[in-house]
User: Which sequence fits this backbone?
């Protein structure tokens, strides 16, 4: 007698065309594009935000429980929903993340310069002080 899961594994899937040799965020987008082809998709962006909130709540709970495996699992779910959000917004998540990385790097380097100009002998700064510099740099941009 065959197991139902064996039958499912033997059937072709719309996901079979998604390869493993692409960045994880892009793979998540491709998986959801393929799933959407058979109707497994939200009709608008609003439910994507609701799902994001649900996944963030589950991540917070996993953090409170201190289970590293559950934390990784829930963090992965948050990132997966982020990729789905990007797809709904017609944005490439890798491009968006690279843009955010560049923006953070640019701003942080300015914060460092300001902090060191004001406190030449200090390399360990108070978070509130650094945050005030961050807000100043952000406002100037």
Assistant:
């Amino acid at each position: 007698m065959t197991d139902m899961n064996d039958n499912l594994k033997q059937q072709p899937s719309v996901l079979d065309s998604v390869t493993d040799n692409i960045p994880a965020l892009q793979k998540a987008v491709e998986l959801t594009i393929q799933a959407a082809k058979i109707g497994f998709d939200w009709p608008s962006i609003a439910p994507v935000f609701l799902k994001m909130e649900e996944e963030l709540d589950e991540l917070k709970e996993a953090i409170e429980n201190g289970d590293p495996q559950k934390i990784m699992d829930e963090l992965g779910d948050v990132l997966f929903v982020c990729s789905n959000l990007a797809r709904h917004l017609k944005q490439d998540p890798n491009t968006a993340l690279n843009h955010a990385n560049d923006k953070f790097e640019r701003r942080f380097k300015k914060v460092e310069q300001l902090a060191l100009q004001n406190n030449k002998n200090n390399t360990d700064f108070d978070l509130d002080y650094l945050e005030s510099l961050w807000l100043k740099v952000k406002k100037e941009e």
Observations:
- The chain has two domains: 23-91, 93-141.
- The chain has a mean pLDDT of 92.
